[in-house]
Specification:
The protein is mainly beta. It contains no helices and 11 strands.
Length: 126
Amino acid sequence: QVQLVESGGGLAQAGGSLRLSCALSGRIITNYAMGWFRQAPGEEREVVAAINWSGGYLYYTASVKGRFAISRDNAKNAVYLQMNSLKPEDAAVYYCAAKRSQNASVFSRAWEYDYWGQGTQVTVSS
């Protein structure tokens, strides 16, 4: 059984940075493409960034390009989201997700993912 646990959320000022971590347990992370999603109150869950199993292929939603960076450390069974130049509109609950895949594909739609973490709150003060 795959379990995903996010950490690193919290309060940041606009223009500041946070680094989210997601630890995968129960399986080897190289079997999975990974994604970060976020959901603000009253909004639908949206993709933020995604990465294929090897880390060679990346995807970012337009609003975070140039500010956020997704990465993974397969030796640590972990994936990360570095968030820089935070804006108030980045505030949301951030979720880590895993999709069984060992090819070049990245996945940007929530329904494609097999496993989800519980989420971590990111708050950005203006």
